[in-house]
Amino acid sequence: xxxxxxxxxxxxxxxxxxxxxxxxxxxxxxxxxxxxxxxxxxxxxxxxxxxxxxxxxxxxxxxxxxxxxxxxxxxxxxxxxxxxxxxxxxxxxxxxxxxxxxxxxxxxxxxxxxxxxxxxxxxxxxxxxxxxxxxxxxxxxxxxxxxxxxxxxxxxxxxxxxxxxxxxxxxxxxxxxxxxxxxxxxxxxxxxxxxxxxxxxxxxxxxxxxxxxxxxxxxxxxxxxxxxxxxxxxxxxxxxxxxxxxxxxxxxxxxxxxxxxxxxxxxxxxxxxxxxxxxxxxxxxxxxxxxxxxxxxxxxxxxxxxxxxxxxxxxxxxxxxxxxxxxxxxxxxxxxxxxxxxxxxxxxxxxxxxxxxxxxxxxxxxxxxxxxxxxxxxxxxxxxxxxxxxxxxxxxxxxxxxxxxxxxxxxxxxxxxxxxxxxxxxxxxxxxxxxxxxxxxxxxxxxxxxxxxxxxxxxxxxxxxxxx
Amino acid sequence: xxxxxxxxxxxxxxxxxxxxxxxxxxxxxxxxxxxxxxxxxxxxxxxxxxxxxxxxxxxxxxxxxxxxxx
Lengths: 468, 70
Hints:
The complex is a heterodimer of chains A (468) and B (70).
Chain A: H1 10-19, H2 24-42, E1 45-48, H3 50-65, E2 76-80, H4 107-114, E3 118-123, H5 157-164, E4 170-175, H6 181-186, E5 190-193, E6 212-217, H7 220-230, E7 260-263, H8 265-268, H9 275-290, E8 294-297, H10 303-328, H11 337-342, H12 349-372, E9 375-379, H13 386-389, H14 392-397, H15 405-410, E10 414-421, E11 427-433, H16 439-452, H17 461-464
Parallel strand pairs in A: 2-3, 2-4, 7-8, 7-9
Antiparallel strand pairs in A: 1-3, 4-6, 5-6, 5-10, 9-11, 10-11
Chain B: H1 8-18, H2 24-52, H3 56-62
């Protein structure tokens, strides 16, 4: 069978279904064939749920035959293994949870299922999303489908590898410092960390005050489609807020030639940004200018405070949620995770509260800038490879999350869109950050950029052929 | 100012008190991580001084809706 459909967008797939040239069962079978062939190299999935997925694909086929025009009917998704899935093992890549089968779906997964999506399986992450990945983890670390000589970046690296490598059409990840946006950027995908709690966090093991569930998809229109399905109030999520329903597709193709972009050069210049990343970012700014956008510098040096504050809050919240099982199940934690989780035992209440005060002040500074411009633009990651990002000194300080983590702290929505390609064949991403609750503008501006460029149309050639 | 673990020996005793069975090489690694973390946490105090001024108590009263840009 032609393997092209494995790399299609959600919209491409839906068109093929409605034209009768592809069925959900055929696509699901194709994706599992590719998983069989590629997962030993990519380590994208920890668990596949083939039997149930094929039953769900058959049910989706019947929905299509009844004329159901839902955009996600029969669309195969991969779900990060720190997000609960009813009846499907959820491990967070830890031997602590090796045999846990959740009794219910996470709210976002339930919404996807309700919309007709098919859950293929659970994707890989570094243990609990808070450790340096190791070959002796429950599942070894994911490789990047664009060049499997390199590791895939970010804790949602398995979701990124599945969605970009033709092992799923779309994926859900979680993001507490950049873990959706960084793999999206490095694997040629669109990824979002929406306004804090726009997407219910119920059923995610990464909650706290920073963590959010976010989609990784192939196009900005796909992002709007998935947001339409998963965004919305959930009374079980204490941070969720009732909001008027928004159609994220409405007006998405209307262009963004009026958009005012702010570039915080005085902050960007404090971060060790690789030359290829900077060149791709500057080229993307020129593309935006050609589209008619206005671009100006903005002063956001305070983001350096946010990076440190995010790191302190993340550490403290990870420790708080793991304290009891660290004591009782120390030996089941991997050698890296248990050390990462232990360090914050030595933070004080004042450390945590001062980090929260920095959050308030930096959030206000970002709000002020977003009254003068519509979006803040930066590279998604300062570096191309996970190998550089994970050098112990910089990883422990969160340097690779310099551009992403500040917006976990402040709660502003931020989206990564493909904007370049490195010499070693790994994609490069650009991050757009907008006003709270204004994801519509983010996807609209990113869509305008996408229509003017071709980065999102590239596919990881080695894995198309199924070789590494 | 907050109370910090100042020496490796003190750190070793604190870990023992927590009841966590770290091996010797793990103790060294976590001690190094904790020192990095202290550095980041201490940098937040300097950040707050920069953003609020030296007196956080009066700043909260004088500028409750602080919107200054850094």
